[in-house]
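Page 37, continued from 36.
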């Protein structure tokens, strides 16, 4: 029974760490950019879009595809950075516990 109590306490602590990590990710702000910073997209650490900024000089009415490509590239950059922030937060929450490749928390 002593092992069960210790395991339950450990699970409770991990659950609290996960809740703290979720709050940390929600508060994190990550910016991706493209076109030498002329297109910037800001995401929360959970991937929710917060803003898009486009320098008016980059808008060419004769080439809307270029602007679309820059927006997609800036979003991809921001998403990549968001994933890195989430992975770092997960490492912190796991307390150095080595998780197998592809293992994602929270479930």
């Amino acid at each position: 029974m002593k092992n069960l109590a210790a395991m339950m306490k450990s699970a409770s602590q991990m659950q609290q760490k996960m809740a703290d990590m979720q709050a940390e990710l929600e508060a994190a702000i990550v910016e991706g950019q493209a076109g030498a910073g002329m297109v910037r997209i800001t995401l929360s650490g959970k991937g929710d879009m917060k803003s898009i900024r486009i320098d008016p000089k980059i808008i060419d009415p004769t080439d809307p595809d270029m602007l679309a490509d820059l927006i997609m590239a800036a979003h991809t950059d921001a998403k990549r950075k968001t994933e890195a922030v989430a992975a770092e937060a997960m490492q912190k929450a796991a307390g150095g516990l080595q998780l197998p490749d592809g293992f994602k928390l929270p479930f």
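The radius of gyration is 19 Å. Flag for discussion at group meeting. The chain has a mean pLDDT of 85.
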